[in-house]
Amino acid sequence: MLRAPTQPTGTGPTGGLGPVDGPDMALPGSQQLVPVLLGLLLVVCLVGLGVALVVRARRARRTGRKGRPTAAVSFAVVAVLAGVLAFVNLPPRFFVPEFPALPRLLPEQAFFYRQVSDLPVSPQSAAWVASQQDLPLMAGFGGTVVGGSVDGVPFNPVDAATPRVVVNYTMFPQTSPKDPVPMADPAYIETMPRYAYDQHYVAVDLDAGTMWELINVRNWFGRWEAGSGAVWDLDTLTYPTGSTTASGLPLLPGSINFDEVAAGSVDHVVLFTSPVSRSLQHVWPARGTDGRDAAPTAMPQGAWLRLKQGTDLSRLGPQAKVVAQGLQRYGMVLSDTSGGNMALRGVPDARWDDADLATLQTISASDFEVVDTSGIKVADDSMEAVPRPG
Predict the structure, then answer these.
(1) Phi and psi of 58, rounded to 5°?
(2) Which of the four, 105, 138, 296, 369, has the lowest number of CB atoms within 10 Å?
(3) For the segment 109-129, what is each residue's pLDDT rounded down to a tens digit?
(4) Taking a C-beta distance cutoff of 8 angstroms, is the pair 331, 366 a contact?
(5) Nearest to 254 by CA among 383, 144, 151
(6) What is the phi/psi pair of residue 90, to 5°?
(7) Which stretches does DSSP call E strand in the chain?
(8) Shortest CA distance to 193 belongs to which of 24, 349, 19?
(9) pLDDT tens, 350-381?
(10) Helices (DSSP H) in the chain: which residue ranges?
(11) Is 136 helix (H, G, I), strand (E, B) or coil?
C-alpha cells in the first residue's frame, strides 16, 4: 500500500456538494492489520537475530570455530524486508477533516424540519424523562482525536463518476442494497482513524438525489464488507427497506454540521443516543429499536424531546448555545442505544471547539420534555409530518 505524501484531498465540487478538506486514509480491515503483522514479524526477527548471534558467539568461545552465520543472516534479511514493508504500509498522517456545508437533504415536509414549539407535552413525558436518570447532554462529535478516534459521523460527497463497489453484507443481506455502492477515495468512515465502533460510511450525491449508508464497514484485501446498508431517495419521504440505525432513521439529516452552527442556527431535528432505551417498543418516527430496558416507563426510540424554554443557557459556549437553541425549536429524537450520556449526532470537523461543546453537559435530561407527535404523524411508514399552522 504505497502512499504519496499526505495532502488535503479537496478536489472541487462533487455530486452537488463542496469538497472535503481531509487526509488520505487507511481503511478498516487489512490496511490496519498488515502493518501490525509486519511489525510483529520485525520484532520476532530481531529477537531471533539476537538469539542467533548469542548462540554463535558462545559456540565460537567453546569450539574456536564460528561457522556459517546462516540463521543470523536469515533473520537479518527477513527483519529488513519486514521493516521496509511495515514502513511502506504505515497509515498516512491523519488530521481531522473539514466537511462542506449541507443543505436540507429531504423534502420540506420531513419531520426533521418540523418545529415543535406548538406541540403539546406527551402524557408519558414525566416517566420517560425520569427513565433517563438525569443524564447529562453531550456532543457525540468533535474536532480532535481522542483515544485514537474522532467522534461523529463523517460523510462523503460522491457523483456519477465515483467508482461503485460490490459490498458483501454479513448481518442483514436480505434488506441491504443489491446494487454496488459508490465508494469515495479517500473514504471517511466513523471513528477514524483507528475505527472503534459502528464504522458508518455515508455517501451523498445531491445531483442524483441519493444517499447511501453502510455500517461496520471494512475492506479485506480489496473485498468490501458491511453489516448492513440502506439507500435513501432524497426526493421521497418513504422509508427504504434497510437501515443502519436501530431506529431505522437516516443519519445525516439528523446530524449537526459545523457550517450551520457557524451560521448561527440549527434548523432541524437532531438525533441522539442514550444508554436507557425501551426494549421491544418504538414510536414514530422510529421504525425499530435495539433497546435493552424492559421497564415499562423506559423511553422508547422515536421519542421526541424538546429543550424547555426556561433552561439556563448562560453557561454554554457560543457553539453549544446555537445547538441548544436549535433543540428548543426543533428538538431531538432518540435513535439508538449507546453507552455513557445522552449524545447528539453530529459531523466531526477540525473547526469544532471541543471545550465549547463540552459545556452542553451543563444541560441534563430533566431540562427536556417529550412532545406529543400523534397530531402530526401522517403514516407509520412515512417521514412526513403535518406542518405548523400558519
Answers:
(1) -65, -40
(2) 296
(3) 999 999 999 999 999 999 999
(4) no
(5) 383
(6) -60, 140
(7) 137-139, 156-157, 164-165, 167-169, 181-182, 201-205, 210-215, 218-220, 223-226, 228-233, 270-274, 304-307, 332-337, 342-344, 368-370
(8) 24
(9) 999 999 999 999 999 999 999 999 999 999 99
(10) 30-63, 70-88, 125-131, 258-262, 318-329, 354-358
(11) strand
